[in-house]
Amino acid sequence: MSPDLDVAVVGAGMAGLTTAHELRRAGLDVRVYEQHEHVGGRMRSFRHAGYTIDEGAEQISEQGYRATWELLARLGVPQGDVPRIGKPVGVWRGGRAHPGVADPSAVLTGAGLSPRARFDLARLLAWTGSHRREFDADHPERTPARALTVREFARRYHRDVHDYLLQPVAGSFFGWDTARSAVAPMLSLLLEVGPAVGWRTYRDGMDLLARRLAEGLDVVTASPVHEVVTEEGRVRLRVGDDSVTARSVVLCLPAPVAARLHVNAPADERAFLSACTFTPTLKVSCLLDRPLAPPSGTPLYVLLTPDAEDDVLSAIIVDHAKHPDRAPAGKGLLTLMADARGIPELLTAPERQTADRLVRAATRYVPGLETTAGRHFVHAFTHGLPEATPDALRRRARFMARAARPVEYAGDWVMLRPASEGAVRSGALAASRVLSRLRPSRALGRTRPTSRPTEENVS
């Protein structure tokens, strides 16, 4: 009996939708299964009373997101729908906000760093600059930073470089514990995306690209996949109460979930899957009756609250500064990011209790918040972001060199790149690997691959 599908894609986040888009362009019969009732995964946005609320990812960049920009162009999304944010990132220290984080000018302005730490920041920038060609976000395992953790790497510099730069950036944007995650992926990504002045958002919510991709695909929502089994000549999926077969399956899910679903995964795959651990993320959206923000001489997009200053919050995002359409005219929208250390407890707490705790903590930085906030929404992802541990870094090269197989994987964790660009690139790579094995005779407008794909083929 022939399989039901050419390819089944599990997960309708950016990795899954990109994979399905590329395979559909090649003429394959592709279906995407998504357990939730919406697409986008950690790129999802939802709309409420005139507010556009980003549940997960917050921005992209005009640098370092080549695959994303190519997708946007292919889908006809004008650059005006991806406007520049144009506001700086600040860090809290000594009772006030210091703008300039993620900007080379911090060497001069300080951005919360002491004079000695600014000197060491200059040393850090000089070192990364001299090794710039060796920092490739697609190959973080090859960098001169080796498998050092962020904390280990920071020991060569003044303590402030860790406490008021590397830790708050890692803790807020990546959800990382600096003692557990490798510095190489972080430095590679920061070098590639460039200063905060070049960061952008999607005008109509961070799920814009996901929604546009899904429009041209066969996506079945509210359809959880419970098991994936490789059989002779095909792959069987248990979807709800049904069984579906496919010539190939691409698991576009966090590594721990993919490992659980693929019950007979080869041992050499499981080694990397097991090493790709995730941190949970949690944030609270505050719908305001006026546009409050942390006081600062320069209006901020994000205020980072380092572990050295706060054990409840990691950052405050000023969404109405990110783009004015995120909130109705005269209103405001803030996102309160929870500190990773407290998230496990918050995940099991009632949502109202969680929101109250974060709002109380944020009042220190945004006076009047408690009396101004209206509705609160809590967004939590048990598998929020890949940790990119040294163990995963060491195991990645062997995983990437494996032969193409009936079950493939895609997700930011494959690239050890905790960003939507990592998901897009991994989706393109997974599609290339599937095509190299299936070699569809009805491929539309695409040359058949003649060799096993590598990262270089899609980067």
Automatic annotation (TrEMBL):
InterPro entries: Amino_oxidase, FAD/NAD-bd_sf, Zeta_carotene_desat/Oxidored
Region (Disordered): 440-459
Biased composition (Polar residues): 448-459
UniProt entry keywords in alphabetical sequence: Oxidoreductase
Domain Amine oxidase residue range list: 14-435
Keyword match Lipid biosynthesis: no
EC number(s) on file: 1.3.3.4
Oxidoreductase among keywords: yes
Gene3D superfamilies: FAD/NAD(P)-binding domain (3.50.50.60), protoporphyrinogen ix oxidase, domain 3 (1.10.3110.10), Protoporphyrinogen oxidase, mitochondrial, domain 2 (3.90.660.20)
GO molecular function (one): oxygen-dependent protoporphyrinogen oxidase activity
Protein name per UniProt: Oxygen-dependent protoporphyrinogen oxidase
Organism for this UniProt entry: Streptomyces caelestis
